[in-house]
């Protein structure tokens, strides 16, 4: 009696995971996302494990979620997955103020970001 099932947006050989409201600017998050684009998931996980960036821990969690979605929800082979897309978008921005000299005010922008990771199953070429 409920709603009709929504059609799948991605092809059958892809799975995705999203992370919303990550407390980092989109520019800094994109540096970590560009580190894993186009790589096999095993290499991407290794890169994120040994990355010195603070946000790499959350990106790794999102990548592991995309891998789990591919394995459990779409029955894709984990060993043949690559990171086909990893893109970043802005989320909300908290605006705060701090006092400056001579009665003025300085604006502080606390930025948040959204991350989307898409993994794709590729056929092993001989």
UniProtKB/TrEMBL annotation:
GO molecular function, a single term: rRNA binding
InterPro entries associated with the record: Ribosomal_uL22, Ribosomal_uL22_bac/chlpt-type, Ribosomal_uL22_bac/org-type, Ribosomal_uL22_CS, Ribosomal_uL22_sf
Gene Ontology biological process terms from the UniProt entry: translation
GO CC annotation, single: cytosolic large ribosomal subunit
SUPFAM superfamilies, alphabetized: Ribosomal protein L22
Transmembrane domains' residue ranges: none
Keywords assigned by UniProt, alphabetized: Ribonucleoprotein, Ribosomal protein, RNA-binding, rRNA-binding
Tree of life domain: Bacteria
One Pfam family linked to the record: Ribosomal_L22
Complex formation: Part of the 50S ribosomal subunit.
UniProt family annotation: Belongs to the universal ribosomal protein uL22 family.
Stored PANTHER family: CHLOROPLAST 50S RIBOSOMAL PROTEIN L22-RELATED, LARGE RIBOSOMAL SUBUNIT PROTEIN UL22M
Cited HAMAP family: Ribosomal_uL22_B (MF_01331_B)
Function: This protein binds specifically to 23S rRNA; its binding is stimulated by other ribosomal proteins, e.g., L4, L17, and L20. It is important during the early stages of 50S assembly. It makes multiple contacts with different domains of the 23S rRNA in the assembled 50S subunit and ribosome.
Name the record gives this protein: Large ribosomal subunit protein uL22
Species assigned in the record: Bauldia litoralis
């Amino acid at each position: 009696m409920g709603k009709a099932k929504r059609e799948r947006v991605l092809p059958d050989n892809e799975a995705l995971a999203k992370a919303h409201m990550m407390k980092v600017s989109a520019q800094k998050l994109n540096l970590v996302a560009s580190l894993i684009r186009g790589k096999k998931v095993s290499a991407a996980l290794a890169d994120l494990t040994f990355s010195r960036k603070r946000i790499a821990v959350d990106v790794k969690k999102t990548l592991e979620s995309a891998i789990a979605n591919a394995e459990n929800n779409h029955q894709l082979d984990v060993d043949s997955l690559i990171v086909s897309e990893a893109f970043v978008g802005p989320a909300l921005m908290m605006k705060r103020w701090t006092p400056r000299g001579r009665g003025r005010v300085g604006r502080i922008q606390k930025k948040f970001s959204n991350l989307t990771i898409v993994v794709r199953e590729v056929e092993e070429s001989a």
